[in-house]
């Protein structure tokens, strides 16, 4: 099979999606040494080329972040480019949805949409991987990400063997589906102390937008 990965993160090559897929591909290459074609949907000038690559590929994985319970606009644009054609279930398609939300429940509506999309395209749907709590992994110390990266490597290895996402790994990645009482308490304490907003505030300051964080440009 010829695997093509479409990265739907607006952050292009600096994305968490790219980081996760690197570990997925490491596992994949433990089994198969074939080249994996990668397309970044952030390159919107090449949307037509992305659609052509989708048509030619026998196995496709689309990975993207969940932004406030929705897909990024560039992913929607890509879907609009490939919609309308049916592939007679000869093409395999799988999805990986990652987000900063700790709970995987935020992504369940998106999963239902993606499964419906696969059916509309008449592609062989091989599943959707959901992983929350991804925002910030690039600044975390290695001991905090080693388990996550190992699971994505195993996910890639199993995909190379079977052409599907291993159900046990998928289930582990979905944990937690909802935050427990202790987790909610920790988050509440982080909000009170300001730690919960540290990462976001640092990005606001880096982009010179910290003073505008409470702006309401569309209010009366």
Beta-strand proportion:
5-15%
Number of helices: 8
- Which strand order spans the largest sheet, edge to edge or round the barrel? 2-1-3-4-5
Q: What is the SS-derived class?
A: alpha/beta
Order of helices and strands: EHEHEHEHEHHHH
User: In terms of per-residue confidence, which ranges show pLDDT below 50 for 5 or more consecutive residues?
Assistant: none
What does this structure look like?
With 220 residues, the chain is an alpha/beta fold. Helix content is 45%, strand content 14%. It is built from 8 helices and 5 strands. It has helices spanning 16-31, 47-56, 73-82, 108-121, 142-162, 167-173, 181-193, 198-206, and strands spanning 3-7, 37-40, 59-65, 92-98, 124-131. A 5-stranded parallel β-sheet has the order 2-1-3-4-5, with helices on both faces. Helix 1 packs across helix 5 and helix 2 crosses helix 3. The relative contact order is 0.14. The mean pLDDT is 91.
């Amino acid at each position: 099979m010829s695997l093509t990965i479409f990265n739907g993160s607006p952050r292009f090559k600096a994305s968490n999606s790219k980081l996760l897929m690197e570990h997925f591909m490491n596992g994949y290459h433990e089994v198969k040494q074939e080249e994996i074609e990668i397309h970044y949907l952030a390159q919107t000038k090449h949307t037509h080329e992305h659609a052509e690559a989708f048509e030619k590929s026998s196995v496709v994985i689309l990975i993207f972040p969940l932004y406030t319970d929705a897909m990024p606009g560039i992913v929607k644009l890509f879907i609009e480019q490939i919609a309308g054609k049916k592939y007679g279930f000869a093409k395999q398609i799988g999805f990986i949805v990652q987000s900063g939300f700790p709970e995987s429940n935020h992504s369940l509506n998106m999963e239902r949409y993606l499964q419906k999309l696969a059916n509309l395209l008449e592609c062989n749907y091989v599943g959707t991987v959901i992983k929350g709590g991804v925002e910030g992994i690039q600044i975390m110390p290695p001991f905090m990400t080693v388990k996550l990266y190992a699971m994505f490597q195993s996910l890639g290895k199993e995909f190379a063997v079977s052409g599907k996402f291993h159900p046990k790994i998928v289930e582990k990645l979905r944990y937690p589906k909802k935050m427990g009482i202790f987790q909610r308490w920790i988050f509440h304490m982080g909000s009170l102390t300001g730690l919960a907003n540290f990462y976001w505030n640092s990005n606001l300051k880096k982009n010179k937008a910290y003073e505008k964080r409470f702006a309401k440009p569309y209010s009366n």
